[in-house]
Write a structure and sequence with these properties.
Blueprint: H1 3-24, H2 30-73, E1 77-81, E2 86-90, H3 91-102, H4 109-130, E3 134-138, H5 151-163, E4 168-172, E5 175-176, E6 181-182, H6 192-196, E7 219-225, H7 226-237, H8 243-248, E8 251-254, E9 260-265, E10 273-276, H9 277-283, E11 291-295, E12 299-305, E13 313-314, H10 315-323, H11 328-335, E14 340-343
Parallel strand pairs: 1-3, 6-13
Antiparallel strand pairs: 1-2, 4-5, 4-14, 7-12, 8-9, 9-10, 11-12
């Protein structure tokens, strides 16, 4: 029996006894009856103070416990570097805005949840690496949300995805994974071990994403004039290389998924120039490094497949899986082989 319930019981017993005594002495002297009444009046304030005092203590304890829980949830924070200064946010609140920035609007709920878990995984890794409970990030994109009176309408789906996955992050053998994601694949994700020559992330193995071919962003063409093409390459190769070498030369290497891994330029007596595949595609503003090149006398045509680097989770592919009824944990396991969810405390 709790203290408050015991106190109520005691009061009832005391009052009952006094009432019984009053009935017994009803026919006795008026002095005894008056004494009992005065005793009851004297004890009543004390009993009430004891009773409601305990109730007050329990209420204060509940409020105190709730505050402690809220404080524990807010221990891990993010300091977002804005144009005007620092915006300090609890980790879970920051994830809501971050999700809104990286995930296309209108995607299915389970795809949103999968992305929320990956974003949280990135933060957990950073907290562990730095040994700090406060992370500072360059995040000028959050300016659109700060002080926006309509932001709850904009962020409602993101808030739900973050709240319903609260604390969960993705691990491989107990350690946070490299939580890579991108918009659309070329029909297949990339094998990190093959490209990066490492066995440190076996969960980033290539998986089929045939559904990505249905995306309106799957295919794109970039036309670069010959003069511009050479100018851009000279920013990496310098002016020593001849124009013909840069225009017609270059040894292009591809991984098994069809993405450029490296471009090498050589010329006798000169230092070899190596350009990483991702650097090459950014140099020419290509959506991805999955390209086929078509050269004519005046232009270089890049036929591009997909959007993004191709490692980890395809957001478009995740959305397709969600629309087909898959839950977020299933989606993550299909893109990150051998992984499981853990709870961040």
């Amino acid at each position: 029996m709790r203290n408050s319930e015991r106190d109520i019981y005691i009061v009832i017993v005391h009052v009952g006894c006094l009432m019984k005594m009053n009935r017994i002495v009803l026919n006795k002297t008026n002095k005894r009856e008056a004494g009992n009444f005065l005793l009851f009046v004297f004890l009543l304030p004390y009993v009430c103070a004891c009773l409601w005092g305990h109730v007050g203590e329990e209420t204060r304890q509940i409020v105190s416990d709730k505050k402690e829980i809220q404080q524990a949830e807010a221990v891990y924070k993010v300091e977002a570097v804005m144009d005007w200064g620092i915006w300090e946010l609890p980790m879970e609140e920051y994830l809501i805005y971050r999700l809104a920035l990286v995930m296309p609007r209108g995607y299915a709920e389970e795809a949103m949840k999968a992305q929320a878990v990956l974003l949280r995984t990135e933060l957990v890794s950073s907290y562990r690496e730095t040994g700090s409970r406060v992370l500072r990030v360059e995040e000028s994109g959050l300016n659109r949300f700060y002080g926006n009176g309509q932001k709850e309408d904009i962020l409602s789906d993101c808030r739900k995805a973050v709240e319903e996955t609260e604390g969960f992050y993705l691990v491989y053998r107990g350690e946070p994974v490299q939580a890579s994601y991108f918009k659309v694949s070329n029909g297949h994700t990339r094998d990190a071990g093959e490209v990066w020559h490492t066995d440190g992330c076996p969960y980033l193995a290539g998986v089929s994403c045939e559904q990505d071919k249905a995306s309106t962003e799957y295919s794109s063409v970039v036309n670069v004039e010959k003069k511009r093409y050479i100018e851009l390459l000279r920013t990496r190769a310098g002016n020593d290389y001849q124009e013909d070498t840069l225009w017609q030369g270059g040894l292009f290497s591809f991984d098994t998924a069809g993405y450029i891994t490296e471009v090498v330029y050589t010329e006798e007596g000169k230092e070899e120039i190596r350009i990483d595949g991702e650097d090459f595609r950014h140099l020419f503003g290509l959506n991805s490094a999955a390209v086929e090149m078509e050269r004519n006398e005046e232009n270089m045509l890049f036929h591009v497949k997909g959007v993004g680097h191709g490692f980890g989770m395809s957001q478009y592919g995740a959305n397709c899986k969600a629309l087909n009824g898959e839950k977020y944990d299933q989606i993550l396991k299909e893109f990150f082989l051998g992984t499981e969810l853990a709870k961040f405390e």
